[in-house]
Recover the amino acids of this structure.
């Protein structure tokens, strides 16, 4: 079939549906283990299906996809989350007999996805990274305390399982007592973790580069963009950012990593932070699947979902056009809250608070006037959470 199966329907998955809304002659299938996700309610989804969760039922998830072969054979599988990316990558050999799989084999993908492997890869490629120490969950002593200074960022080797359990990317340890408490928490999580120095400075020092390497090994697209704000502030996901003309330093560092993984194919998003102490970019992480602010690239003229579809399904794609500079992406609901209502918003001047909204060219990650239902559902969901948090002890949870 001529179609795309978007696996995961959060903000990033909805961005894929929106990016391909005008692609002629294809069917858009929204696949989710959590039907309450934003994109599940999108008018751009022609088909909606519930699937087993790839993080807890990986084998059942793959069996589900293979069982859909009679109806979906030849479609592009495009993951919009780390659980989905890992499962597709591990079982790529079986799945590509039926589908076009929008992610590479596990032996390559894991070098980017697993934080300790990425640390080693970056160091071998000469790419600057924050100083880090890998810690076994059963370790009784933390040698990192002797070589790293507080505060420390405590993050798991495999972030997707950690996110599912704790709902955050990691924890900040401001001192030794906090670190000892987190050590117990991480031991209970049952996986190795990294203790990493915190690069100082505001969210605006975060710089990103998205690329796509075709199945023939050609670099078809580069999309540099900068974060402006993220949520939660300091350690979180982008809630406001903008496209830039170029980022030669980020491109050089990304090329060093890709040179080490010569056979890597597919999408990758490189996240850096500029260290104010030496003015150099330091690699923070690499995403191997379409990202939460993916619609920024589309709005700027670089449509990664269409590019991937053309390359893997239609048999080839040409280089993407240069991106329009100064396009803004805003995730409206969290940005309004953290910028105008939360105490952390005090760090911004009124000019900084309003800058994204005054931009001539902008797109909202969680609001589309032509597809309002996901936004409305998100507002209702957020309102219910707020009510539950504020209700007196003894009052039953909000229904639904």
């Amino acid at each position: 079939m001529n179609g795309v199966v978007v696996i995961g329907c959060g903000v990033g998955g909805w961005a894929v549906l929106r990016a391909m809304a005008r692609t002629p002659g294809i069917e858009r299938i929204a696949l989710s283990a959590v039907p309450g996700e934003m994109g599940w309610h999108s008018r751009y989804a022609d088909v909606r299906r519930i699937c087993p969760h790839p993080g807890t039922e990986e084998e059942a998830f793959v069996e589900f996809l293979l069982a859909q072969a009679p109806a979906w054979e030849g479609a592009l599988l495009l993951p919009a989350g780390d659980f989905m990316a890992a499962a597709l990558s591990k079982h790529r050999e079986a799945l590509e007999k039926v589908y076009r799989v929008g992610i590479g084999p596990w032996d390559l993908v894991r070098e980017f996805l697993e934080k300790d492997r990425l640390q080693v890869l970056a160091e071998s490629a000469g790419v600057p990274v924050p100083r880090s120490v890998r810690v076994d969950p059963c370790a009784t002593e933390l040698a990192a305390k002797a070589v790293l200074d507080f505060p420390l960022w405590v993050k798991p080797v495999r972030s997707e399982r950690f996110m599912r359990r704790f709902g955050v990317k990691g924890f900040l340890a401001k001192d030794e007592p906090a670190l000892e408490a987190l050590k117990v928490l991480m031991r209970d999580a049952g996986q190795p973790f990294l203790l990493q120095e915190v690069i100082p400075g505001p969210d605006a020092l975060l710089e990103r580069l998205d690329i796509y390497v075709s199945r023939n090994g050609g670099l078809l697209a580069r999309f540099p963009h900068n974060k402006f704000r993220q949520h939660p502030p300091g350690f979180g996901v982008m809630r406001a950012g903008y496209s830039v003309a170029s980022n030669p330093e980020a491109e050089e560092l990304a090329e060093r990593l890709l040179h080490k993984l010569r056979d890597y194919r597919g999408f990758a998003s490189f996240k850096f932070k500029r260290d104010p102490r030496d003015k150099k970019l330091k690699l923070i992480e690499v995403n191997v699947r379409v990202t939460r602010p993916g619609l920024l690239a589309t709005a700027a003229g670089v449509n990664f979902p269409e590019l991937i579809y053309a390359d893997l399904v239609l048999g080839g794609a040409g280089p993407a056009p240069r991106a329009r500079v100064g396009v803004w992406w805003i995730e409206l609901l969290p940005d309004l809250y953290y910028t105008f209502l939360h105490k952390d918003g005090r760090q911004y001047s009124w000019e900084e608070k309003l800058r994204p909204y005054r931009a001539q060219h902008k797109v909202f990650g969680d609001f589309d006037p032509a597809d309002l239902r996901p936004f409305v559902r998100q507002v209702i969901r957020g309102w219910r959470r707020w009510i539950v948090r504020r209700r007196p002890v003894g009052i039953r949870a909000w229904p639904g």
